[in-house]
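note to self: dont lose this again. the chain is below, predicted strucutre after it. 263 aa total, dont forget to put it in the shared folder this time
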Amino acid sequence: MHDGTSNTNTRRGTKNAMGDANNPAGRLHTLLTDYRAAAHIDSTMHATWATVLGVSEGQVPVALAEVAALIPEIHRLVVQCGAAEQLALFEAFGRQWAVPIMSEHHPRQTPGPGPGAVDPNALAVLGGLSAYLSTCAPEGALPDAEEVAELRAAVRDLLDALAREDSLPRDLRSAINARLHDIIWAMDHVRIGGPGAVKQATERLLGQINISLYNAPEARSSGLLKKVMKTISCVWIAYKAGPQVHAALDGWQDLIKELPPAQ
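---
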């Protein structure tokens, strides 16, 4: 799938993309809005989703599994925020949000249900939930396309350097490799996973490094480790929003200072 800075989302504009992306209700609202705009009775549901998601029709079933996962994530956050009236809205309309994703209508059959697969009232409620979650449980921000490209290239450079690295323990090299690929995957799928998925991927790498250093303190002698920390801190900061940023920066800097100079 394409990253969140391209395809359909580009048409919606930076401001709208930023606001919609910071919670799963907003991301689902954007996708269903785009589906409704693209749908036509002469087009199959899978063909419409292929257009909206920027994938081939053969890739649609897997992509829709990611889209469907937004619904239980919305439920989790609504329960976490604890507003009974918002939970009641989810319970009343959640099933309707799933209709264009898991419809009883055959997804490769014409005529298709067209825009009617997305109920406008359910869509309006979803937009209201997005506004609520943007205040109650915001995930972060989306960097602009240029910054995303630079960050992605920096992570790729780390993977190339890691392939030539022989001073780190094999288990740590393997773990860093896996987590760096997780970061790239999250960046490429940000339209569905959102900025929170990118931050979580960087935090998992940080946790892996801390665990490995505890068990293998000699790994601190690798300058590549400091380059990894500096790069993932830049990624984390780019996808983070709100007043927590500056406080968190101090924590990243303290961790980086404990590592040897980059080579």
